[in-house]
């Protein structure tokens, strides 16, 4: 009998498992493995099947800023268990027009003296990043330091390694059922069962599809595509020291761009990433729809619409090939993950990354672990910001509407 079964060994679940195991609990983690053949995969998918995610420290909101502070403080302890670097690259660059800066301008103005964040106007951006061309009227906020690029696969692997070294039992299966009585019994896809006193659900975009809930949570899942330009060695070197950048571009087909410097992918190719909300994005609620997008979604059809914005931003970009990557973003009603009790004292939740939780994976995992261990909210952060919401309980969804609806 375990103390806790964590269902979902992704960014938040793996982090929670680590913190629970390091707190001395007997932990089992049901970590559905990344599919070798996505097209034929019939189980759940994860939003961490990638080599880059962006992480920035300056955050307008107090809760977000505290999560960012905790995330930065946890970097070294994650690298300790890593089999490859998790945090790389220079500090983050945020570029937008003042009216679209999501409060970044004010957040930087309110930072204590000596913060080191550079404010770059259009000319300064052009001087600092001659390989990039931003639209007129943009202002850049360049964070000092390093590590604004994190490798989600490496982070998950490091957190699971840390959990295992603290005694956790990692099971590469997926959960298909759960019964809750005096204890909890989790049924796996191979017919076996895991028994524990408590369960933590960290199942991401597949939570409502998991068959583990009595009623659906208020979650909206959006298709996300990432455009990748394949670069030859010379071009990769030319663009090699670009910062991980968030760019509030003004474009008819894309918005909220995130781009990472040229990075080597598992197949050995070096790719320049151009991720964004696009005019082709859509909501996918039905489990079959979510899986179909991952398995065989037609993300390549968006290339002609998305490529021009990338080429305008990287003038003279020489790509030897183009490809896309598909993923799904899970939004909650209030914009923060649901970290809450589902069945008091028994079943807990940590779901809904809102497209921004890779950078906060460790502190969110720690929050979920402290709630699951104590059976109640004990962290100084406000529980209300993480409260669960069920279908029908959301009047105004936090976050953005689809670009096609704006
Ligand atoms: C394209 C893209 C770009 C992004 N860029 C950024 C970024 O730059 N910065 C940032 O901070 N965030 C970013 N994000 C968001 C970030 O990746 C997510 O917020 C984060 O991965 C959410 O973590 P999670 O643990 O909730 O979900 P996931 O990482 O998806 O993990 C959930 C896990 O649960 C497993 N699972 C599901 N059901 C079951 C089951 N029944 N049994 C067992 N296992 C199950 C899944 O297989 C998966 O491994 C991005 C997301 C996408 C899609």
Keyphrases for this structure?
alpha+beta; FAD/NAD(P)-binding domain; D-Amino Acid Oxidase, Chain A, domain 2; 2 domains; eight-stranded mixed beta sheet; 9 helices; 28% strand; binds flavin-adenine dinucleotide
Short description:
This protein has 406 residues and is of the alpha+beta class. It has helices at residues 11-22, 62-79, 104-109, 122-128, 152-165, 233-238, 287-296, 303-313, 361-374; strands at 2-7, 27-30, 53-54, 87-90, 93-96, 118-120, 139-142, 146-150, 169-171, 175-180, 184-188, 193-201, 219-231, 245-247, 254-264, 270-278, 321-332, 338-343, 347-351. It folds into 2 domains: 2-52 and 152-219 and 334-386, FAD/NAD(P)-binding domain (3-Layer(bba) Sandwich); 90-148 and 220-332, D-Amino Acid Oxidase, subunit A, domain 2 (D-Amino Acid Oxidase, Chain A, domain 2).
